[in-house]
């Protein structure tokens, strides 16, 4: 600041001077103040500079701090960014997963929705259908109700009429049993026409290890013709012809063989005695035919098992008409001594020691006794144990015991089985469920000892004795059958134990069947011819009548008789079936009317009724009564149903 002293301003005298001094003082003060101000300004400037510097420093610090902060922030930012990025990715992934889940859920719910819709639709359709059906049902039930009312009235009229008819028919049905009996009689006549003694020839196949062997069998005819050839003779002389009821070739099965035996079992249950035996040299297949091979399967079962099996089957189909009791005995005849094969005593008793044998031989006591067949119970060896059987299983067990005992005896007495006769006897006791009448019959199944001839010069001692016994009993058997076939007044049953035991089943109205077993090997030619000759002799006369009349007249007459009998049987069967149907109808009638079968309310004067056994069905009835199986007037039937 500049302070000026203006010249124009003339100092006034003294006052003026004072004024000047005062002004000067003021000026000085002003100057001082100015200085002070300048100092202050300088100080302030300095302060300002200081402050400025401080600001600069602060600025620098601030800048540094800012930079540090920025760097830290940047690093933290980066880390945070990375973390965020990672999280973001995770979230994105979760998001994608959730999206997928949502999509899946959407799809699932969509399909469920569709299914439900479908179901709903189906239910809807079903409900509509049910409702429709219900409506229809309601309509039809109403119309049915009306129908029923109508039918009830017409039925009651109809039943009244039917009742009258049934009453008449019931009288006709009374003849049911008489017709059945007549049917059985006709069947028996048919069996008799076929021959009460039949001979079936069976040729054994070559066994394993016998390949390349030459056979003696040249021809097997359909009707039982057999031609064997003798290799040592040429031309006509080398051939021998035989004729039997049937010839089974080597390929014949057990089933085929049994099928022709079956009719005899029906006869057995009708009260006729039957005897089936196998004859032939050792190893020709007798046991195979009668029993079957060892541990045989059901297919391989022989006649014994099949026969019993069939007996159970047939007796079951007849259970309404007859109650059957079946019992079995099994004995062996060795050296004219009879032994029980089913005894529960040890083999010692069955096969006594030599000393005991000698002792008892002397007393003639050690073998089982044979009684005459006139016994009321029909037992020819009453002391042999008797075993009731109710099933094939029982039979198998018994047979096994018997065969085991026979085998034990065989070991003890040197392969005795082929040199002894085994006889299985089946006793049948039937009771008519309606009349209480009873019938008894027996079936003998015999596996004979080997029929080969033993050269007396070659064997001695026990073998000779055995051979003599076998020859004696077999020729006694041949004689008996021959005498029977000849209808001779005297039949030599007493000539052997075998024929005594079989007496009840040989002769009279009994049916006899012999299986002639042949070994086809050329080495057995002469034995086979002997066997065939025996069989020819046995079957000779009765069958011969038909066989010898080569012009065919007798045969034709017999065939015509057979045909007419068959016709009659068929007619009777039809009648039986018709009567059975009527019976069934009657039962239906009773059931509908709520009557008891025996109390016909419509019958005014019907006699008191005994409930009558009925066959299961017309078909079963036919099965029972048709075929060539039946016969009726057996000698053992004590009280038969009345004949018409
Ligand atoms: N039809 C057949 N098919 C197959 N094998 C058979 C036939 N017949 C017999 N055989 C077999 O021949 C052999 C002798 O048969 P089997 O024992 O039955 O003769 P067999 O005449 O009873 O003899 P044996 O007099 O010694 O008792 C046995 O091995 C048997 O299995």
TrEMBL record:
TM region positions: none
GO molecular-function term, one example from the UniProt record: ATP binding
Any GO CC annotation of this UniProt entry: microtubule
Keyword Transcription regulation: no
Skewed-composition ranges (Polar residues): 626-644
Chain residue ranges for the region called Disordered: 590-644
Sites where the protein binds ATP: 280-287
Domain Kinesin motor stretches: 196-541
Keyword annotations of the record: ATP-binding, Coiled coil, Microtubule, Motor protein, Nucleotide-binding
PROSITE patterns (alphabetical): KINESIN_MOTOR_1, KINESIN_MOTOR_2
Pfam families: Kinesin (PF00225)
SUPFAM superfamilies assigned to the protein according to its UniProt record, in alphabetical order: P-loop containing nucleoside triphosphate hydrolases (SSF52540)
Coiled coil feature spans: 27-54, 81-108, 555-582
InterPro entries membership: Kinesin-like_fam, Kinesin_motor_CS, Kinesin_motor_dom, Kinesin_motor_dom_sf, P-loop_NTPase
Family, per entry: Belongs to the TRAFAC class myosin-kinesin ATPase superfamily. Kinesin family. KIN-14 subfamily.
PANTHER family: KINESIN-LIKE PROTEIN KIN-14P, KINESIN-LIKE PROTEIN KLP-3
Protein name from the UniProt record: Kinesin-like protein
Lineage: Eukaryota, Viridiplantae, Streptophyta, Embryophyta, Tracheophyta
């Amino acid at each position: 600041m500049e302070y000026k002293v203006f010249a124009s301003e003339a100092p006034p005298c003294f006052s003026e001077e004072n004024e000047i001094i005062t002004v000067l003082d003021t000026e000085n003060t002003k100057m001082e103040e100015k200085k002070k101000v300048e100092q202050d300004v300088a100080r302030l400037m300095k302060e300002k500079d200081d402050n400025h510097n401080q600001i600069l420093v602060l600025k620098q610090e601030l800048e540094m701090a800012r930079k540090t902060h920025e760097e830290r922030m940047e690093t933290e930012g980066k880390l945070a960014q990375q973390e965020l990025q990672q999280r973001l990715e995770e979230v994105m992934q979760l998001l994608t997963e959730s999206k997928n889940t949502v999509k899946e859920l959407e799809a699932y719910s969509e399909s469920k929705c569709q299914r439900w819709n479908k179901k709903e639709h189906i239910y809807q359709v079903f409900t509509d259908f049910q409702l429709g059906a219900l409506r229809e049902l309601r309509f039809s039930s109403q119309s049915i109700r009306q129908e029923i009312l109508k039918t009830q009235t017409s039925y009651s009229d109809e039943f009244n009429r039917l009742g009258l008819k049934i009453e008449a028919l019931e009288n006709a049905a009374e003849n049911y049993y008489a017709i059945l009996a007549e049917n059985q009689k006709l069947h028996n006549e048919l069996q008799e026409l076929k021959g009460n003694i039949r001979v079936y020839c069976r040729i054994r196949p070559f066994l394993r290890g016998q390949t390349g062997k030459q056979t003696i069998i040249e021809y097997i005819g359909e009707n039982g013709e057999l031609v064997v050839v003798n290799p040592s003779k040429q031309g006509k002389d080398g051939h021998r012809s035989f004729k039997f009821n049937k010839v089974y070739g080597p390929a014949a099965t057990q089933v085929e063989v049994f099928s022709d035996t079956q009719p005899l079992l029906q006869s057995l249950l009708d009260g006729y005695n039957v005897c089936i035996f196998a004859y032939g040299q050792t190893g020709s297949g007798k046991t195979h035919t009668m029993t079957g091979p060892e541990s045989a399967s059901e297919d391989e079962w022989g006649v014994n098992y099949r026969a019993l099996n069939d007996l159970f089957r047939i007796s079951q189909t007849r259970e309404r008409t007859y109650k059957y009791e079946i019992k079995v005995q099994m004995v062996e005849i060795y050296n004219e001594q009879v032994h029980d094969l089913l005894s529960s005593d040890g083999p010692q008793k069955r096969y006594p020691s030599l000393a005991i044998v000698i002792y008892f031989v002397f007393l003639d006591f050690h073998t089982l006794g044979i009684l005459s067949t006139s016994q009321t119970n029909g037992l020819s060896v009453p002391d042999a144990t008797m075993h009731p059987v109710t099933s094939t299983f029982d039979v198998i067990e018994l047979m096994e015991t018997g065969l085991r005992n026979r085998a034990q005896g065989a070991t003890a007495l040197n392969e005795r089985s082929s040199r002894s006769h085994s006889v299985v006897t089946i006793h049948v006791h039937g009771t008519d469920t309606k009349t209480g009448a009873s019938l008894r019959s027996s079936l003998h199944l015999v596996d004979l000892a080997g029929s080969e001839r033993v050269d007396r010069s070659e064997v001695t001692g026990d073998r000779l004795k055995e051979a003599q016994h076998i020859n004696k009993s077999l020729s006694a058997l041949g004689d008996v059958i021959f005498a029977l076939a000849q209808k001779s007044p005297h039949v030599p049953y007493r000539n052997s134990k075998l024929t005594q035991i079989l007496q009840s089943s040989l002769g009279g109205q009994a049916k006899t069947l012999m299986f002639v077993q042949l070994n086809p090997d050329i080495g057995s030619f002469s034995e086979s011819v002997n066997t065939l000759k025996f069989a020819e002799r046995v079957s000779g006369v009765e069958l011969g009548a038909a066989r010898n009349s080569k012009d065919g007249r007798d045969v034709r007459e017999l065939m015509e008789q057979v045909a007419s009998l068959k016709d009659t049987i068929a007619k009777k069967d039809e009648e039986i079936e018709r009567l059975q149907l009527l019976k069934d109808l009657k039962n239906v009638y009773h059931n509908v009317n709520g009557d008891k079968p025996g109390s016909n309310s419509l019958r005014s004067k019907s006699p008191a009724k005994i409930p009558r056994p009925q066959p299961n069905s017309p078909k079963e009835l036919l099965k029972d009564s048709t075929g060539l199986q039946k016969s009726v007037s057996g000698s053992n039937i004590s009280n038969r149903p009345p004949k018409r």
